[in-house]
Amino acid sequence: MSVSESITMEENGSKGRYLYRADGHEAEMTFSRVGTSQIIIDHTGVPDAFRGQGVGVALVTRAVEDARAKGIRIRPLCPFANAQFRRHPEWADVLAR
After folding, report:
1. Model-level pTM greater than 0.70?
2. How far apart are the C-alpha atoms of 66 and 43, rounded to whole Å?
3. Strand ordering across the sheet containing 8-12
4. Which CATH number fits domain 3-94: 3.40.630.30, 3.40.50.300, 3.90.1720.10, 3.40.640.10?
5. How confident is the model at residue 1 (pLDDT cuts 50, 70, 90)?
């Protein structure tokens, strides 16, 4: 199973996170909901065991895919997620301005 296929999403009220777990390690990207039309990505944490494997990008990509499917926008306050949005202009359709 690929990294992207192994990512899960958890939500609890206005807070949530995308998770990737493998070999006893966990990477996460946390977000907060702003009403029904926007999420704020506020943190991405990838342990050293996953560095260089594209796990962080896969977490942001999954959020982008979900945002498109739900018709919502993303405000990437997390520096990593913000950098990924700058590197991926094709994600502009879900970027909150």
Report:
1. yes
2. 17
3. 8-12, 15-22, 25-34, 38-45, 73-76
4. 3.40.630.30
5. low
